[in-house]
Amino acid sequence: MDRKLNIPVADVLQEAGNFIEESICIKMSGEARDFFAEGDQIDSCEDLKFLRPIIGQIKFVSTNNDIIGYFKIESEIEQICSRCGIDFPLKNLLSFNQVFTFDNSEENLQINKNKTINIFPVVIQEIILAIPIKPLCKKCKE
Asked: In total, how many domains does the chain have?
């Protein structure tokens, strides 16, 4: 699995207001640690187990020198109920925006020199942030 999901954005950068829409399907069934190389910045993701591919829609819109990404992502990971201790599937439907720039301030949010954007770290980070502090299975929520 290539951990770089590069979306070409050269056409979007031509003029402010240009946009592209992309559908994504990231096949990450199994242990998340299998998809990261040593030294990757996403350490808190190692124990995630994805139950099905990450799917979604992305719209990239150009501003003057930046690109805004509008993401709608769906994922399903295995979690352990904090109350009863059983494994259960946790489905997340996420909507978020992210600004990408040529500035070198943060590597994960860069437009690469070949005018592509690697969305993989951004998507994984948002999935991690959506996990509840104390996840509960369906039975314990009742």
From this structure: 1
